[in-house]
Amino acid sequence: MNVMLRTAVLLSLALLAGCSSIQPWVMPYERGYLADPIMDPDRDRLVSSHRRHVFDVREGASGAAGTSGGGCGCN
After folding, report:
1. Does 58 map to a domain?
2. Range(s) of the domain holding residue 55
3. Over the stretch 10-52, which tens digit does the pLDDT of each residue have?
4. Sign of the CA dihedral 38, 40, 43, 47?
5. Prediction pTM value
6. Is position 50 within any domain?
7. Up-side HSE of residue 54: CA atoms within 13 Å toward CB?
């Protein structure tokens, strides 16, 4: 039992050592790619407005996302 406990502790320490990192997750040269407008989920206002409307109608929630209306789809 003592050997299994030591093995489990060493294995967990080895796994946790892999999680620690001194380097930043995003390198400075990669930030340009992340700042690209194509990465913006709301880059097309018409599509995002339609998705919000469909979500409000599907959920039947009035005022959940700042819009009014009922579950029937009529505003």
Report:
1. yes
2. 40-65
3. 998 888 877 766 666 777 888 887 778 777 777 788 888 888 8
4. positive
5. 0.34
6. yes
7. 6
